[in-house]
Each structure stands twice: as C-alpha cells, then as structure tokens.
C-alpha cells in the first residue's frame, strides 16, 4: 500500500491528520506539486485526474479523494471512530464535514486559485494550463468563507466539536480549511470566541502536526 | 421523522432515489423552492442554510445535505448496501460519488445558476439576492462536465456501474447529475456508448421515477 502525498497541500493534510488520529502508518511517496509532479506520465497512470492524495492498494487499485481514502481506512480500522457511531452521529459528521468543505475549503481554494499568479491557467486542481482564472470568484469565495465561520462559531457555542461531543473528520476538514484559508488572508474575526477555543483545542492535538 | 423535499430539484432527488432503492418510507413536506419556501422564517429555523433536503428527527435534530441524510439511513438499514461493503468498495463508492458531484453536479449547477435570469442574485443555493452571477463560470462548468463524461465513459467500459459491479450511491449521484445537466443543455455525446448503456440501465430501475 502506498500513499501519494504532498506536504505543502491541504487535501493530503486531511488524510495525514486522519491517519495520525488513528495511529495508522502507511508508506508514502512525495509528489512535488510545485514542480508539476502530478502531471508526470507515471503519476497520470495512477491518477488521470492529476490530484493528490491517492492511495494505491497492493492489487493496483487506486483510490483518489481525501475522504474516500479515509473511508477505506475507517472500514479496516474502526477504532477510534472518526465518522460517527450511531446513525444520527454519522449523519451529523457527514453534514458538518461537507459544510466545511463546500462552504469553506472550496471557496478558500477559489480565492487562492483565481488570484495568485502561480495558478494562472490552473484555476482548478489537476489542470495544466487550460482553466483561466476568474477574479470575481475570489469575492464570492470570501463571502462564502465568512458565512461558514459565522455558522461554525454559532455551532461551537453549544458543541465541543463540529459534529458533537467527539472529535471527528468534520473537525479535520474544518481545521485544515481554517489553516489553509489563512494563506488566502482569510482570518478568523476576533469576536468568534467559540471558534478560537475550538481551533486552539484542535491545534494542540498531536495530529495537527501531521 | 420528516423529510423536507422539493420535487423539482436535483439534490432531494438523490435522497428520493436512495430511499426508493432501500424501500424506506418517510413522511414528507414539500418546500416550494420556486416560491421561496426555503427562505420562510419557519424553514430557516429548521435549516439556516435555506437548502433542501433536510431530515428532521423526532428529537428535533435536523440533518441537511443529501449524502448526510443517506448515511443516516444506511446506518439504520444496511441492506441492500449502497455505500459499498468491504473497505475497497467503500473507498471507490466515495471516490466516484465525489467525482460525479464535484466535477459534474456542481459544474452543471454553476452553468444554470450563473446564466438563467431566474437565478439573478442567487448564484449559490440557499442565497436570497446577495450572490451575483458570474457568466464566465458557465464556460468553466461546461468544460468540467465534459471532462467528467469522458471519464465516466472510460470507467463504464470496464465496470457495470460507476464504482464497480454493484449499483451504489455513486450511480445515484451520477445519474441525477446527467439528468439535471440536460436542463442546462449539457447532453451526452453520441460516441459515449458505455455511458448510454449505463444511463439506460439506471433509467429502467423503478427508483429512477422517485
């Protein structure tokens, strides 16, 4: 089994945090996204979508998408449960994980990819020069991100973690999003005390260094 | 338990197809999105995100997001499994479901919401007049959608269904996406025979009418 990883990107960080929380060790290959390693012919054979991370199984099956990789490991190693236990918790974990991703992670990525010169022509992940930037998307992304922060702060007033009393993948997605968004100068307003409390608690977990 | 639904929208259709495949009956309330029912104060209390579908449990817990609702039911009623059985299948279902959504469903929604006059100011779901349209996003959406179709057709040359030999939620997401995209005049090129075979097979299932 081999994990195709890149230390500088947020998506593989979600998987690394997940593995650290579970105590799972996996062999890794670093795909240097800064030098276009994801577009090398060898990597295209592993993932024609040219994104990282990918988990390659011993039979050659390749699983792309961070949460798909985590689901694979969750089925193999259920403890500690990071996708919820009973039906309600499983639903809430998926809901908060998707909110963090759709209303936070993707909008923050839109801000970066549609403004930085280094992403010219590559405004979507896994694309090599054929996706022009749309600067207006940065404004839309900033507004979506601000809305997610407000929502999360309200939620965290009543709940220790994003999906409930337990740390789950919803916290991993939300935490990686908040850290990644800081690169796009999307900070957390000082008034959001609940969010600040939660962020400090997650940052103090050993997995945050993964 | 109550499902907040709307017959004319693609997201709730994913849940309806899922429930039909499982043979699960749930009480429903129709939220008329064409008349702004999602912005009524009563519905905002159920889902401040103003999106449909939402599942309200008997204790008042509200689960938004189609796949979160399906995960809730999958935990309660595991048979027939629609999210995969072993670890590899679970990973592949999540991967193909996410591809269909991120590279097909969301881009098709971008095409519609950034071009139709009826979505002026409402270019994102659950937003009431504060999200301007970005016409360039329609071009990007069309290109992403075309790429997904090519990928799916290649996949379906070797696989009966999107994630493998079994019908799963990945097929539900992909099928609803293809049907929904037709509204945005995004058709399937005739050359994609595998995709046409798969689409006809899914359309023939009773759940396709849900």
How would you sum up this structure, described in words?
2 copies of one chain form a homodimer. Chain A has 210 residues and is an alpha+beta fold. The first copy, chain A, has 2 domains: 2-76, Glutaredoxin (3-Layer(aba) Sandwich); 87-209, Up-down Bundle (Glutathione S-transferase Yfyf (Class Pi), Chain A, domain 2), CATH 1.20.1050. Chain A is 50% helix and 7% strand. Chain A has 7 helices and 4 strands; from the N terminus they run E-H-E-H-E-E-H-H-H-H-H. Chain A has helices at 10-22, 41-46, 66-76, 87-113, 136-158, 169-181, 193-203; strands spanning 2-5, 27-30, 54-56, 62-64. Chain A has a 4-stranded mixed β-sheet, covered by helices on one side. In chain A, a hairpin with a 5-residue loop joins strand 3 and strand 4 (62-64). The longest helix of chain A has 27 residues, at 87-113. Chain A is globular and about 50 Å long. The first copy, chain A, starts with a strand and ends in a 7-residue tail after the last helix. The model of chain A has no long low-confidence stretch (mean pLDDT 95).
Outline of the structure:
The structure is a homodimer of 210-residue chains. Chain A contains seven helices and four strands, in the order E-H-E-H-E-E-H-H-H-H-H.
Q: Secondary structure elements and their pairing?
A:
2 copies of one chain form a homodimer.
Chain A: E1 2-5, H1 10-22, E2 27-30, H2 41-46, E3 54-56, E4 62-64, H3 66-76, H4 87-113, H5 136-158, H6 169-181, H7 193-203
Parallel strand pairs in A: 1-2
Antiparallel strand pairs in A: 1-3, 3-4
Helix pairs in contact in A: 1-3, 1-6, 4-5, 4-6, 5-7
């Amino acid at each position: 089994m081999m994990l195709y990883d890149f230390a500088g990107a947020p998506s593989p960080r979600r998987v690394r945090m997940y593995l650290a929380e579970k105590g799972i060790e996996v062999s890794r290959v670093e795909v240097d996204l800064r030098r276009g390693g994801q577009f090398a012919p060898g990597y295209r054979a592993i993932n024609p979508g040219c994104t990282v991370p990918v988990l390659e199984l011993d039979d050659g099956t390749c699983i792309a998408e961070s949460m798909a990789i985590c689901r694979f490991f969750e089925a193999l190693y259920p403890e500690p449960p990071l996708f919820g236990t009973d039906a309600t918790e499983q639903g809430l974990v998926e809901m908060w994980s998707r909110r963090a991703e759709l209303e936070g992670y993707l909008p923050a990525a839109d801000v970066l990819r549609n403004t930085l010169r280094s992403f010219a022509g590559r405004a979507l992940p896994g694309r090599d020069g054929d996706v022009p930037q749309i600067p207006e998307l940065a404004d839309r992304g900033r507004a979506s991100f601000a809305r997610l922060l407000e929502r999360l702060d309200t939620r965290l007033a009543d709940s220790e973690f994003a999906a409930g009393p337990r740390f789950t993948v919803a916290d991993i997605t939300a935490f990686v999003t908040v850290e990644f968004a800081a690169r796009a100068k999307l900070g957390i307003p000082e008034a959001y005390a609940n969010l600040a409390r939660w962020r400090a608690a997650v940052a103090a977990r050993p997995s945050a260094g993964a």
